[in-house]
Amino acid sequence: TNGSAPAVPSDQYDSLYLSPVTVGSSTLHLDFDTGSSDLWVFSSLQAQSSLVGHDYYMVDPAKEKQGYTWKISYGDGSGASGKVYADKVVVGGVTATAQAVEAATAVSAQFTQDVDTDGLLGLAMSTLNTVKPQQQKTFFDTVLKQLAQPLFAVDLKYHAAGSYDFGFIDKSKYTGAINYVNADTSKGWWGVSATAYSIGNASTSATVSGILDTGTTLLYVDTPIVKAYYAKVKGSKMDNTQGGYVFPCSATLPDFSLTIGGVKQIVPGKHINYSPTSAGNCFGGIQTNDGIGFSILGDIFLKSKYVIHEMGSTPRIGFAQQ
Ligand SMILES: C[C@H](Cc1ccc(C(C)(C)C)cc1)[C@H](NN)c1nnnn1Cc1ccc2c(c1)OCO2
Questions:
Q1: Is 158:271 a contact under the CB 8 Å cutoff?
Q2: Alpha carbon nearest to ligand 1 atom 25, residue
Q3: Tens digits of per-residue pLDDT, 105-124?
Q4: Pocket probe mutation, ligand 1, options 216, 217, 302, max atoms within 8 Å of Cβ
């Protein structure tokens, strides 16, 4: 079987995208995350006070994987932990009958406060899954064999609902050719590298290696590239209180591109004006990856493309223009 699930922006700035998922008998709205590998959900194991505003998984004790636990922490300092159940998970009509469902007993404040997000559905490699004593498969790995093709395609949109396709490529969602590159999955992520970047119509050779990450809002690249970008934005500055580069909301932002597999993958300047700040200026969609050690090609990079993640004998990533 194949299937498709909508990816709906959680707010007016596309902070994250939520997709409906049936877990057991509950329908939850999960953040599909190609940068992690746990399917975890808010659950009836939590204190009622933590569940306010959230949909949550009603655990069935008969389905518990006795003695299994999970604990995840994310690069933004948030995290969650809990117990594990084997239950039915349905995404866009694709069913995993005994998927490892990680039911939260505790979640960090960032998750409790984000009442729209009922958990995450990881789509990176299962080697990053945190379940102990036995690592569990991602939803994609669980359903892989039943899919017509061993792939999922990501169609995130700018300020609009997009989709995740499982098992098929939807020709109506892109124009032009699909440009494929081999994926570096050695660290458990969908890794790619670029040989150049461009700001406006000026290209610079550079090696930019990073991960595709639907679970990260912005585009994080090396500091010299970020500085070169905002040098072209009048009135821009690094604002430590806001936590990144800001600029006058009236600024015209140049396009940015990364050359991957010899093809320029362009991020329209418009997408790089992420959101207004509380200080009356606007926050940039391109920020520094200081301290992370690699680039993170998050939603700002992805939302102009149709990106195929193919888990064949050689994992590949295909880029096409929306
Ligand atoms: C942050 C998300 C995971 C997440 C998503 C949503 C949320 C909230 C719902 C509470 C809003 C928290 C967490 C990302 N997923 N691959 C991730 N998980 N682990 N690392 N990253 C990417 C990274 C790493 C480091 C960084 C960063 C980003 O932003 C700033 O510094």
A1: yes
A2: 75
A3: 999 999 999 999 999 999 99
A4: 216
